[in-house]
Amino acid sequence: MKAARFHQVGGPEVLRVEEVDTPAPAAGQVRIRVAASAFNAADNGMRAGFLPIPVTLPHVPGYDVSGVVDAIGEGIDDLEVGQPVVGFLPMGSDGGAAEYVVAPAGSVVPAPRDVPLGDAAALPSVALTAWQALFDEGALHAGQRLLIVGAGGAVGGHAIRLARRAGAHVIATASPRSLAAVRAAGADEIVDHTARSLFDAVTEPVDVLLNLAPIDPEEFTRLVALVRDGGVVVSTTAFMATPGDERRDVRAATVFVRADRARLAEIVDLVDAGELTVEVDRRIGLHELPALHAEASEGRIAGKVVVLASRPA
Predict the structure, then answer these.
(1) How far apart are CA 129 and CA 148, in angstroms?
(2) Which of 154, 163, 178, 245 can bridge 250 by disulfide, Cβ–Cβ 3.0-4.6 Å?
(3) With a threshold of 0.85, does the pTM exceed it?
(4) Distance (Å, rounded) from C-alpha 229 to C-alpha 250?
(5) What is the pLDDT of residue 193?
(6) C-alpha to C-alpha distance for 6 and 44, rounded to whole angstroms
(7) Nearest one of 215, 223, 164 to 189, comparing CA atoms
């Protein structure tokens, strides 16, 4: 089969598409005939060697995957051959940038019914990140005020919809490029951070501040003043510390997305019910993945990209 792999960490040039053996599922695993994998910033960080997630080399990136169950290992009775699935694969194991991938059965769930199977790869990790940030770390509930900094991306869109569904009042920041997307997601208030200060726009304290953007650490610390006493600051930017305020009992939490099969199945149900959407900005072939990594290294990627396997699903 074909797979994109890197044999050493380094620049985008270390990633190449090559012929490798087709893996066989062990007990507790399924083999997926890949429709697509999704590109994530962490893939770029692991390939470059600056994200401290241990991998065995050579490594296949792409921990978000969609496809069809092709073979089943021993001990699995809730999935079947021919079933369309999506999954959030263990980040240290080989990913879905290949024609086939083996995955723990506990990391995959039936795919959304009305989303193209290739596009469904864009769902798992971003939606799980939003859920875990809001509810597992932020303990958000109905009637609270939420401020999302950097809401224009895929995680932000899911966070807005999930928070509104939970009955929270959502204030979201965006740039002019992403204002329409944030508005479509349903934010109650939108702040163009290029034109207006958050300290002018947010007139009442918020219960939860969720940061999704690589903002200046000093600016991030100043934003804690917008959180009420006893509130929570949550961040997905694991490369910098999340600030809190012990004097006011403002708790700080950093999200490291984790696999959660039950939650992912619930997220798929919300997609099927029309309460969440799966949005894809670009679709590329497996052979184009090295060039995509080069774009990422130069900071030129905007939006969600799925990498279609060479073999159609």
Answers:
(1) 13
(2) 245
(3) yes
(4) 6
(5) 87
(6) 11
(7) 164
Q: Is the pLDDT assigned to residue 261 strictly greater than 60?
A: yes
Kind of pairing, strands 206-211 and 227-235?
Answer: parallel
Q: At what angle do helices 124-131 and 154-165 cross, to 10 degrees?
A: 50
Tokens of 304: 């969600």
**Nearest in space to 280 (alpha carbons), one of 264, 303, 299, 302:** 303
Q: Assess whether pLDDT exceeds 70 at residue 232.
A: yes
Helix H, strand E, coil C: the string for the chain is: CEEEEECCCCCHHHEEEEECCCCCCCCCEEEEEEEEEECCHHHHHHHHCCCCCCCCCCECCCCEEEEEEEEECCCCCCCCCCCEEEEECCCCCCCCCECEEEEEHHHEEECCCCCCCCHHHHCHHHHHHHHHHHHHHCCCCCCCEEEEECCCCHHHHHHHHHHHHCCCEEEEEECHHHHHHHHHHCCCEEEECCCCCHHHHCCCCEEEEEECCCCCHHHHHHHHHHEEEEEEEEECCCCCCCCCEHHHCEEEEECCCCCCHHHHHHHHHHHHCCCCCCCCCEEEEHHHHHHHHHHHHCCCCCCCEEEECCCCC
> How far apart (Å, rounded) are the C-alpha atoms in residues 138 and 147?
11
Contacts of 188 (CB under 8 A, 6+ apart): 164, 169, 170, 171
pLDDT of residue 287: 95
End-to-end Cα, the chain, rounded Å: 14
Q: How many residues does the chain have?
A: 313
- Residue showing tokens 């509810």: 135
Location of structure tokens 């060697």: 49
Residues contacting residue 75 through CB under 8 Å, at least 6 positions apart: 27, 28
Q: Which two tokens stand for residue 14?
A: 């270390």
Helices 41-48 and 289-297: crossing angle in degrees, nearest 10, is 90
Q: Which of 109, 194, 202, 91 is nearest to 147 (CA)?
A: 202
